[in-house]
Amino acid sequence: MKRRLPLKVSVSGVRGIVGESLTPQIAARFASAFGTYLGPGTFLIGQDTRPSGTMLKKAVLSGLLATGCQPVEVGVLPIPTILFLTREKQARGAVVVTASHNPPEWNGLKFIGPEGIYLRHSQVEEFLDIFHQGEFTLAPAERIKSPLQEKNAGELHLERILSKIKVKSIRRCRFRVVVDCANGAGAVLIPRLLQELGCETLLLNTDIGGEFAHQSEPVPENLGELCRRVKEFRADLGLAQDVDADRLALVDEKGRPLGEDLTLSLAVAHVLRKKRGPVAVNLSASMAIDDLAARYRVPVIRTKIGEINVVEAMLENGAVIGGEGNGGVIWPEVHPCRDSLAASGLILEMLAESRQPLSSLAAEFKRYYLIKEKLECPAEVAFRAVVELRRRYRAERLSTLDGLKISREDSWVHIRPSNTEPIIRLMAESRSAARSRRLIEKFKKEIKDTIKKFR
Question: Which residue, 6, 9, 47, 393, shows the most beta carbons closer than 10 Å to its own?
Fold first, then answer.
């Protein structure tokens, strides 16, 4: 009998398998708890392109309406756009129906506060207390409102991005660009952005009807079509978004995937050339970030995995750029959130100003080889396995800020239970692909052996 996977609840929101751990009833309860927590006001409601999104969105609308809130449906939009709009329109909050990179049978809810960022840790605890207690502030019939709808809401986000980059310089280059939207929410806005920037564009996988074109993470193994089309189109670069459009991966003009981590490194390098200041990234971001910070003599703040952790560090330290090594660039000049659209603008501006091909810009970085893998494992077993490994490697330089990170002179390994899936994530980076692979295989075996002890 197939084991049912529990609902995953974390600072990233809630995720579960539709019809099992995530149902309309549960979605409505979370929405009522959220409306109770933040109080009556305007709430933006968005969604990604999953077929189950409409069903869960209706449940969210019901839950918010029941607490006297005014929902405004903005439709399918990139997550960074909804985060931006929440603050720009001074909404009380927002709910996005999405499961990000999880497979299509999953869906979830992300909760956004009035600052236009995800709920902070203390806020999540308060919100979840209300959910578990089930004590919702329900409105009488005369205070129940009708949902409103807003079309073309994403234009404000595009205007902000265009106001922060050198549009004329990019237009003069007339870049040829191939974009893989993975049939995700980015398909709604990235064509307009590239049109405004004067690019000749070939669009791939722009159907927002509900079927993902391929596995939704923009990692090299999922970008075969994009790499091929970049060469056929004789493009200057390829852009790959995830289905939420908060992550961006790049393909150079030779049709080679550069890896998600290099997106962040390029964006950091470009911003630091123009404006010196602190950089905030998570524990799994490449050592290339430390090299850049040393070159420009600025501090690096390392945080736990999760966008809100990086955003909080950026706001507290006045960081000029930051993000996560999965292609999540956070440029606060536009908005403090991971944003593939703002990242695309930065990369195109960098190409325009350098007048070098993307492959040459990438070659300027000291080469690191980052390998990411994952092992299926129930959450409770995963945490026990990490504790055991921490004991075993206690003599080494460790960080227990988020799981276990073992740092050596020119390499590191990061092992952490996922907040969003029943898996252990395993990452290793070094100056050699072979060495990174050896580290991955060594620790993968150790993790498997340790898991067996606890099952």
Answer: 47
For residue 378, CA distances in Å to 99, 101, 424, 449 come to: 19, 19, 9, 15
pTM of the model: 0.93
Which residues are CB-neighbours of 133 under 8 A, at least 6 positions away?
A: none
The pair of structure tokens assigned to 303 is 């945080």
Tell me the three state secondary structure of residue 108: strand
Sign of CA dihedral 278, 262, 302, 95: positive
Instruction: Tell me the sheet residues that pair with 4.
Output: none
Which positions ≥6 away from 23 have C-beta within 8 Å? none
The tokens describing 175, both together, are: 């870049």
* Phi, psi (deg, nearest 5) at residue 301: -105, 125
Q: What is the DSSP string of 337-358?
A: SB-HHHHHHHHHHHHHHHTS-H
Q: What letters, b where the CB count within 10 A reaches 16 and e where it falls short, cover 282-316?
A: bbbbbbbbeebbeeeebebbbbbbbbbbbbbbbee
Instruction: Domain ranges for the chain, please list them.
Output: 8-153, 156-363, 369-454
What is the radius of gyration, based on Cα positions, of the chain?
22
In this structure, are residues 202 and 178 in contact, taking their beta carbons and an 8 Å threshold?
Answer: yes
Handedness of CA 419, 424, 425, 431 (dihedral sign): positive
Give the CATH class of 8-153.
alpha beta
Q: Does residue 383 carry a pLDDT above 90?
A: no
Average pLDDT rounded to a whole number, residues 305-331:
96
Q: What is the pLDDT, as a whole number, of residue 1?
A: 39
Tokens linked to 453:
């002890």
Render pLDDT for 16-39 as a digit per residue (tens, 0 to 9): 999 999 999 999 999 999 999 999
Query: pLDDT tens across 230-253, in order?
Result: 999 999 999 999 999 999 999 999
Summarize pLDDT for 195-204 with one digit per residue, the tens: 999 999 999 9
CATH class of 156-363: alpha beta
- Catalytic residue numbers, as ranges: 100
Fold match between domain 8-153 and domain 369-454 = no
Among 197-211, 292-306, 363-377, the range with the most confident prediction by mean pLDDT is 292-306
Q: How far apart are CA 170 and CA 58, in angstroms?
A: 42
Which residues fall within 8 angstroms of residue 353, CB to CB, at 6 or more apart?
166, 169
Query: Tokens 């539709």 — which residue?
Result: 18
Place of tokens 């010196």: 276
Contacts of 447 (CB under 8 A, 6+ apart): 375, 385, 389, 415, 424, 426
108 beta partners: 15
Residue 192's pLDDT is what? 97
Q: How far does Cα 189 stand from its chain's mean position? A: 17
Domain spanning 369-454, CATH architecture = 2-Layer Sandwich (3.30)
